[in-house]
């Protein structure tokens, strides 16, 4: 079994998990740009009540809002205030904790969004 020897510079270019370098010290990973949402072809938002992977606790997810990440966080903040609960924005999808279907649907209607309830 032969092993191919490579230089340190070549190895560093191949390794994307480099944490520390003697030349520059601690290496911070490149931050990826926050992604916004993508719209569905019919223009409606999709609201789902999910419990999978959350220890049985209900979460309402809102997908299909074709806005920037900043706009998504503003909408999420408004919905969290109206519902009096927590939530977050992950990968262009707004997650609101708890089963707040009526409040969320009323607020989205006030904001001028059309939506459909998706899932079982």
What is the total tally of β strands? 7
The helical percent reads 25-40%
Give the termini distance in whole angstroms: 56 Å
Strand content: 15-25%
Give the helix tally: 3
Q: Characterize the biggest β-sheet.
A: 5 strands, mixed
Write down the Rg.
21 Å
Note the run of SSEs as H and E.
HEEEEHEEHE
Query: Could you list the spans in which at least 5 consecutive residues all have pLDDT below 50?
Result: none
Shape: elongated
- List the strand order in the largest sheet: 5-6-4-3-7
Mean pLDDT rating: 84
Assign the structural class, choosing from mainly alpha, mainly beta, alpha/beta, alpha+beta, or little secondary structure. Answer: alpha+beta
Model description:
The chain has 120 residues and is of the alpha+beta class. Helices cover 27% and strands 22% of the residues. It contains three helices and seven strands; from the N terminus they run H-E-E-E-E-H-E-E-H-E. The chain has helices spanning 8-14, 69-83, 101-110, and strands at residues 20-21, 25-26, 45-50, 59-63, 87-90, 93-97, 115-117. The strands form two sheets. It has a five-stranded mixed beta sheet with strand order 5-6-4-3-7, with helices on one face. A two-stranded antiparallel ribbon has the order 1-2. The chain is elongated. The N and C termini lie far apart (56 Å). The mean pLDDT is 84.
